[in-house]
Amino acid sequence: AFTPKDRPSIKKMKKDKTMGKLILFATTVLCLSCESKGAEPGQPQVPAWQAPELLASGFRFTEGPAWCEDGYLLFSDLSNNKIYKWNENDGITTFLSPSESSNGICYDGTRFWVCRHMARDIAVLNKEGEIASVVGSYDGLKLNSPNDIAVSKQGTVYFTDPDYGVEPADRELDFEGLYYAVNDSDGAILADDSLSKPNGVALSPGHSKLYVCESSSNTIHVFDLTSEGMPANRRALCCISGDGEVDGIACHKSGYLFIAFSAGGIVIVSPEGEQQGHIAFSAKDRIRNLCFGEDDGNTLFVAASQSLYRVRLTY
Fold first, then answer.
1. CA-to-CA distance for 179 and 1, rounded, in angstroms?
2. Which residues, 6+ apart, have CB-to-CB distance to 29 below 8 Å?
């Protein structure tokens, strides 16, 4: 997702007594430690993680990683107008070019769902690389620039539609929306039109909740999902503090949320909204989006603008 320009990092403070207290306080609040806090009673254990492993670099704006159980990853390079494929044996190959400036991608067990900025739609992409538009409008008006997407086990598709990738003069909708579509319908159903810069979306392990990142306020919102798949009862789960902007989000099978925080790395949040850890990256990296993959679901793939990383978890 396009996000506001990253704010400059905090300068190092002098190590006198007063500043030492401030550093301790800031470190606690911003979770700028690679050590995770212990889980509260009744909570699942916070997953532990290894150091990030660089898989590839040299991209312009990576986004939307999605894992396929056939043993490969797809991800977008939005600015290069391509979707790349990565696997352990072959490394990086081009899967689709042009991609209509694809952004978020999600795999539903059979095919991929793709958010496309240039086409301003949601498309389906099969394993042979054939792509077709599915949803491109709401109430007869063209979408802004679909950003991120999640698909439930019932087949309901959830996606955000901020205004990052559309020129003001070309906009037809005067709001930024959260939508859903059911049963392969080409009709988008509006779930929320009050968010400002809605961005990453993720489902809870049981698909009973939907998490949505709001980049303008660094807030993670949570919706309950009705039996029909409709998002309801929105509330703020937490507000991420620190030097970054929330972007993509992925939910581990434990229920812990892993949030792409741009220059702030990855922030780990409990299902109750408490910040429990932080995965640090190089200062040049801007963490855009992420997904879980590999056979046990304990591997995190991370799109970091110019690079692709892998982070192995222990759980």
1. 17
2. 241, 242
Closest CA to 107 of 95, 89, 118: 95
Low-confidence residues in the chain, pLDDT < 50: 1-38
pLDDT tens for residues 197-251?
Answer: 999 999 999 999 999 999 999 999 999 999 999 999 999 999 999 889 999 999 9
Burial 55-83 (b: 16+ CB within 10 A, else e): beeebebbbbbbbbeeebbbbbbbebbbb
Rounded distance between C-alpha atoms, residue 82 and residue 180, angstroms? 25
End-to-end, the C-alpha distance of the chain in Å comes to: 29
Which one-letter amino acid corresponds to residue 173? Answer: L
Distance CA 39, CA 37 (A): 6
Six-digit token pair at 227? 């039996």
* HSE-up (13 A, CA, CB side) for residue 98: 9
Q: Running DSSP on this structure, what letter comes out for residue 19?
A: H
Contact between residue 193 and residue 177 where contact means Cβ atoms under 8 Å apart: yes
Q: What is the pLDDT of residue 24?
A: 33
pLDDT in tens, 164-198: 999 999 999 999 999 999 977 778 999 999 999 99
Report the DSSP beta bridge partners of residue 257: 251, 269
Looking only at the bridges linking them, the beta strands covering 209-214 and 257-260 are unpaired
Extract the tokens encoding 282: 């190089």
In SS3 terms, 171-206 reads as CCCCCCEEEEECCCCCCCEEEECCCCCEEEEEECCC
Residue 30 DSSP code = H
